[in-house]
Amino acid sequence: MGLKNKIRLGFLSLALLLFFSGIISYFELSRLSHSTHSMLGASFRNMELSKTMLDAVQDQNTALLQMIVSGSRNSDSMLIVGRQKFDSSMREANVLIRDLQGFDSIYAANVAYNRIVDAYLSDSLHKNSVGWYVNIYETSYADLTTSIKNFMVSSQRIMDVKAQRLEDNAYRATMPGFIALLIGILIVVVFFYFINLYYISPVLKITDALKNYLNSKIPFKVNVEGRDEMFRLKESIEKLIDQQKSKRNEYSDMRLNIVLRYIGLILLLNAAFLLLSACVSLLNGMDTAFYPLLQSFLLTAILGAFPLIFVQGGEQISSSEGYGVVVGAWLMSCLMCMLPYMLWGGEFTLADAWFESVSGFTTTGSTSLSNVEALPKGLLFWRASTHWLGGVGVVMFVLVVLPSMGSTKMRLSSVELSSMAKDNFRYRTQKTLQILIVVYVGLTLIQTVLLKIVGMGWFDAVCNSFSTIATGGFCTRNSSIASFNNAGVEFIVMFFMLVSGLHFGLIYGTLTGKNNNIFKSEISKYYIFSTLAGGVVIAISLWLTDIYPNIWISLRYSLFQIISVASTTGFATADSSVWTPLAIVVLMLFTIQCACAGSTAGGIKCDRILLSFKAMKAAIIQRQHPNAIIRVKLNGVIQENNTVNMAMLFIVLYLMLLGIGTVAVAAFGIDLETSFSMTVASMANAGAGFGQVGSMGNYHEMPGMVKFIATIMMLLGRFEIFGFIQLFFLNKWK
Fold this sequence. Notes:
Four Helix Bundle (Hemerythrin (Met), subunit A)
C-alpha cells in the first residue's frame, strides 16, 4: 500500500468513527427528545383533565346548592352540563391514561356520587334537603374530589420517575459523543505517530545521511520501515552512491511499531467478540447495550487495524518484543473492552468499568455491580466473553489462527505459557496451541449442552459455561449458581470446574489414550484428592455445628465451594462467610494453592506446592545425611535445582505480595478479614473472598482506590508475578 492510500485510509477511518458516533448520538438524542415531548405532553394533559373534572364536580355541587336553597329544579341544566363535562373528561382519560394509578378510584367515586345525586333528584326534592346534603352528599362529594386530587399527585410522581429515566437517557446520549471524542484524539495521536515514523522521520534520516556522505564521506546508512515509496527512495540513493545496504540488528532494541502490530491483531479479536455481543443484543430486541457494543466494536476495530496498515508484516521478533506484545495485549484488551460498560452507564463509573474489565479478562470474576440481573443480555454475554478470551489467553487465540511465524510464534507462546504449564505438553509449539484451543472449546460446548439438558436456558448455559471453563465466575444471576436451585446444574458446574483446574495437555492425553495422562500424573492426583479431602473436612465441620441438617447436604455445599475456590472459578451456592472458622481457613488455604499449571486457574498452583513439599523433605533428609545425593522428583522426572529454587522464590514473593496487598487495602479503613481475603482472591484470580466481599457479596461499596489495588493484584496473579515485574525492565532485555 502506497503513501497516498495509507493517508487516505487513515483519514477515512477517522471519518467513519465520527460518522458512526454522530449517527448513534443522533438516534439517542432523537429518542431523548421524543421521550421528553411525550412526557411533557402527557403530564400537561393529565393536569388539564384533572382540573376539568374538578370544575365539573364543583358545577354540579353549585347546582345542587341552588336547588336546596331555592327549593326548585331551576338548576337542572347546570347539573346536566357539569355531569356531561365530567363524563367527557373521564372518557378521554380512559383512552389516554388508563394505566395511571388512581384512575379506577375516580371512576368508583363518581359512580357512587352519581347514584346519591340521582336518588335525591328522583325523590322530587326532599323536605330535609339540608340534612341530606350534610350527612349524605358531602361525604360522597369529598370522596370524589379527593380521588381526583390523588390522581393529580400520582401523575406528578410518575412524571418524576420519567424525569429520572430521561436523566439516564441523557447520560447515554452524551456519553458516545464524549467517548468518540477521546478515541478520536487517540486515533489522531496514533495517526500522527505513524506519519512521523514512516514519512517525516525517514525523510529527515535520508537527508542527514546524504549530507554526511557528501560532506564527510560517512557511509550512507539509513533504516526505513516498510516497503513503500520511502523505502524505494532509500534503495535508489544507495545504488546511486554505490554503498553496501545496511541491515539493522533487529534484536538490539524493542521496536514499538512491531509490538503495536501484534497488539493490533489482539484488538481485532476483541472487536470480533464485541460484534458478536452486539448481535446477541440485536437478537434480544436491540436492547440498551446494542449501541454501546456496536460503537465499542468500531473503535476497537479501527485501533486494531491502524498498526496493520502501517507496519510491514513478516518480521521476526525478539524476546523483549514478545513480552511487550503479551503484556501490551492484555492491558489494551482490558482498557478498550471497558468501553461497553462506560458507554452503557448504569452503575458503571470509570473505576467500576476498569474493575469489571480486568476482573473479566484475568478470570477473577469479582464484580462491582450490586444488581447483575439489571444488565441487558448483550452486556452479560460480553462479560462472559471476556472470561472466555482471558481464560486460555487472548494471545493464544490469535497464535492458533495465524500462519506459520517460526520463532515469532515460539517466543509469544513461551511468554504466555509459564515454564510449569509447558511441562506436560510434549508437542511442538503449533500442536500445543491447537490442543489448548481444542480442549478449551470442546469442554465449553459439552458443558453448554449438558446445562441445557438439565433445564438451564441456552443463553444462561453459554454464559455460565464460558465462566466455568475459563474458571472465571461471572454469572448471569445476582446469587450466582445458587439462583438456579438445581442439583443437576450444581453437579455439572462442579464437575467442569474440577476438570478445568487440570492441565489441558493431560486432559488431551487422557482422551487420546496417551501415557501422559491424568491418572499417571502425580500433580493431578494431588489436586483432585486434596480438594475432595478439604471438602470432606469442611462438610464434617458444618454438620457438627448444625449449620446444615445432615452430612449429605453439608457435603453438597462444601464440595461445590471448595472446588470453586480451588479451581479459582468463584461460583457460589451458599454464603461461605457465615461458615465455621475451620471451614473459612480451609477455603482460604485452597484459594492460595489453587489448581494445576497449564489450566485456566490462577494462584500458586499445585505443581509448586507439591514441589516445595518434596524440596523440604529432601532438605530434611540432606541434613540427616550430609553426604547423600538427594534428588527432587516430580512425576518421575528429576527437577533441576534452578526449577526448585524458582518455585520456592515464587511462593515467597507470592506470600510477600499478599502481605503488601493486605496492608494497602487495610489502609483505606477496610477490616482485616476483608482486606486479606480480597487480596488472596484477587491474586489467585478466584473472585470470592470473605467479610464484605464474601461469596454472596460484591465490591460495589469499596472505594475506587481499593478497586484499583485489587486490579493490580489480579494482573500480578494472571502474569504469575515474574512476568508482570519484567514489564518494568524491558529496556534491559537482550
